Amino acid sequence: MTNRAMLAGLLTTVLLLTGCAGGGSGGGSGTSEQGNSGGDSCSLENPPLFEEGALTVATDRPAYPPWFKGDPEDYSGYEGDVAGEIGRRMDLPVTWVVEPFNRSYAPGAKDYDFDINQITITKEREQAVDFSDGYFDNAQGVLVMEDSPAAGAQSISDLKDVTIGAQVGTTGLDFINEEIKSAEQTKVYDTTNDAKSALESGQIDAFVTDLVTTVYLRDIEIEGSEVIGQYPATSNSGCSSRKATRSPAA
Predict the structure, then answer these.
(1) Which of 136, 164, 179 is the last residue of a domain?
(2) What is the pLDDT of residue 132?
(3) In terms of CB atoms within 10 Å, which end of the chain has fewer, N or C?
């Protein structure tokens, strides 16, 4: 697809440029260190990589369709295919590693070349990591069970008195805290899968996450669930690179 090909070219450029940028190193092979020292090691023919001879890409687990499909050794799906296309254009095999979502944009050294995981671009996150241009306009979705106290909600204010859950470190959790301002205790989970299980078991009345994920869970994984609303996010999703110790002005 033309848009995907353009995106792959863009992300390859971003990966190489951020790999050559100043700041702390991501660790890994000597190639990465050479990339920080300048010279020809930062060329397209000799890109700075975490591991020589491979493109190391991180994402969370479980990784849901339509973003990812198949096994981690050979991901397809929207984001899996983007990473695969970058690897093909660089003539490198892709090695997938697991990075919990809330650590993908945290400051510090990274053991991969970039992370692709529907990471919403925010000013706060840009203080710690470099992002590609956004590739998907993001929105928050609210997923409930059909018999939940939240099922009849018609507005944000109707959600204040129900128990809501979200994954730690996500813009879904920010949305609950800043927009819904729930009167009940907000439940925070390590993974999307944990929050999904909590919704199914009745531990929470509503689950807030990316709209596309809520639709997938409704249609494929959680029988008797429904998406009762969607709310625009303040930014969109992009890939973060492993250069995670630069200053904002770098």
Answers:
(1) 136
(2) 86
(3) N
Tokens matching residue 18? 């951020």
β-pairing, 206-210 vs 164-167, is: parallel
Query: Considering the entire predicted model, what is its pTM?
Result: 0.64
Provide the pLDDT for residue 245. 35
Would you tell me the crossing angle of helices 2-20 and 77-89 to the nearest 10 degrees? 60
| Contacts (Cβ under 8 Å, ≥6 apart) of 193 | 62
| Dist CA 115 CA 153 (whole Å) | 35
Q: Judge residue 5's burial from the number of C-beta atoms within 10 Å of its C-beta, 0-12 exposed, 13-18 middle, 19 or more buried.
A: exposed
SS3 state at 171: helix
Instruction: Give every residue of the chain whose pLDDT is below 50, as ranges.
Output: 1-6, 9, 12-14, 16-40, 243-250
For residue 13, give both structure tokens.
């450029």
Report the alpha-carbon distance of residue 191 to residue 165 in Å, rounded. Answer: 11
Residue 219 has a CB neighbour count (10 Å cut-off) of 11
Q: What is the pLDDT of residue 1?
A: 41
Quick one: pLDDT at residue 250?
A: 26
Do 51 and 242 touch, CB atoms closer than 8 A? no
Q: How many residues does the chain have?
A: 250
With tokens 């992009």, the residue in question is 238
**163, 208 in Cβ contact below 8 A?**
no
Domain co-membership, 97 together with 146 = no
Residues 6+ apart with CB under 8 A from 116: 57, 58, 59, 79, 82, 83, 239
Same domain, 119 and 7: yes
- Among 116, 136, 156, the domain boundary falls at 136
Q: Phi and psi dihedrals of 131, rounded to 5?
A: -115, 150
Give the Cα separation of 107 and 105 in Å (integer). Answer: 7
